[in-house]
Amino acid sequence: MKVRGLRNNNPGNIELGADWQGRVPDNEQSDKRFVQFTSPKWGIRAIARIIDNYKKRGVVTVEQIIHTWAPPVENDSDSYVKSVLKTMGLPPQATGFVPVKEEGDYLNLIKGIIRHENGLQPYGDETIKEGISLA
Predict the structure, then answer these.
(1) What does the DSSP 8-state code read for residue 110?
(2) Structural domain boundaries enclosing 102
(3) Phi, psi of 93 (to 5 degrees)
(4) Of 7, 9, 17, 133, which residue is 20 to 30 A from 28 by alpha carbon distance?
(5) Residue 129's Cα: distance from chain center in Å?
(6) Does the predicted TM-score (pTM) go above 0.90?
(7) Count of structural domains within the chain
(8) What is the chain's pLDDT, residue by residue, as a tens digit (135 residues)?
C-alpha cells in the first residue's frame, strides 16, 4: 500500500483548505485532512505554488522554507532541513542557501520535500518539472 501522500497524489502532504487546481472533486475527497489530487503533477504544482508564495514574502532559504512548510511547533524542522539539504546535495550547514534561484535547485528542493514527507521520492524529473511548469 502506498503512503498517504503518494496515494493522494499530494506528495507535499498539503492540508485541505484551498481550492487547488487539479483537485479531486469534493464529493470524491475521502481524506478528511489532506487534499487529494487527480494526478501527481497537480500535487507537485501545489508544492511549487506554495514555495512561489513564500518567495514573494521573502522566505527564500532552505531553512526558512522548511520552517514555514513544517513549523517547529509541530515538526522536527531542523531534521527536515538537513534531510532536504542532503537530497539537494548540499552540506548541513548550507541552510542560508537560496534554493529557488535556479531551476535545478528548485527541482531538488521539491524532490527533498517529497522524500521527507513520504519516505521516498518516486517521481522522475519530467513529472516534477511538469508540475513546476503548471505553477
Answers:
(1) H
(2) 4-134
(3) -85, 5
(4) 133
(5) 13
(6) yes
(7) 1
(8) 689 999 999 999 999 987 899 999 999 999 999 999 999 999 999 999 999 999 899 998 899 999 999 999 999 999 999 999 999 888 877 766 555 556 667 899 999 999 999 999 999 999 999 999 999
Letter for the amino acid at 121? Q
23 phi-psi bin (left φ>0, alpha ψ -120 to 50, beta other): beta
> How confident is the model at residue 1, as a pLDDT?
65
Half-sphere exposure at residue 25, Cβ-oriented, CA atoms within 13 angstroms: 2
CB 109 within 8 A of CB 100: yes
Long-range residue pairs from 77-83, CB within 8 A, at least 24 positions apart, any chain: 80/116, 83/112, 83/115, 83/116
Write b or e for each residue in 41-58: b if 16 or more Cβ atoms lie within 10 A of its Cβ, otherwise e: bbbbbbbbbbbeebbeee
User: How far apart, in whole angstroms, are the C-alpha atoms of residue 105 and residue 51?
Assistant: 12
Identity of residue 30: S
